[in-house]
Amino acid sequence: MEEVKKSQKRKSSGDNEEKAIDLIKKPKSSQQDKESSEQPSVVLLFSGKRKSGKDFVTDILQQRIGQDVCTILRLSGPLKAQYAKDHNLKLDKLLDATEYKEKYRADMIKWGEEKRNQDPGYFCRLTTTDVPSSFKVWIISDARRQTDVKYFKEHFTKETLTVRVEAELKVRESRGYVFTKGVDDAESECDLDTGISWDFTLHNNGDKHTLDKELNSLIECVNERISKN
User: Fold this and answer.
1) 62 contacts: CB under 8 Å, gap ≥ 6
2) Are strands 160-166 and 70-73 parallel, antiparallel or unpaired?
3) pTM (two decimals)
């Protein structure tokens, strides 16, 4: 079921990724960060290891909160758009779960690190630029670094909740995870393994009852925050 979910196109994130190429031509300065979009009521900043099921969980969460008020934003969207442009690659292939993406993953990670070293908030700014004001809840589905968390906590201090998706290694392996040197031992996969006190932790090991219970607690908190705005 998870693999089917992950293969489906997600309109909200797709829209965000399609505008990425235009946005990279005119990145905003740090002084413009807070003016880039209407302030959301809640920002859910998600992290998790490969094959932990982040997309599966965030898809469910968006559906339950409501797609009219909740959008999924991916930091990797603008990254992949710029990488594809610089290397003359097919962006649509980099955005799906094919072997095409895996072929370039390690080099794309290295390239992204170089960009972030120059400007840690670069991809965060691009991702959150011009989000429609109708979306009161932003799900950032792929935070990978301490600098990502720092950016959202500094620019959306009251709105941000951090969420970690956990799955046991054997479960991740059953979903196709195989350790890849240069990917799974890179900063993009390991930087958030320690040093963060997560507001919520969701356990996605195939136990629907446990996951539902944890999701309901998160949704209750989200609805509470929305009602105060």
Assistant:
1) 10, 12, 70, 71, 72, 139
2) unpaired
3) 0.77
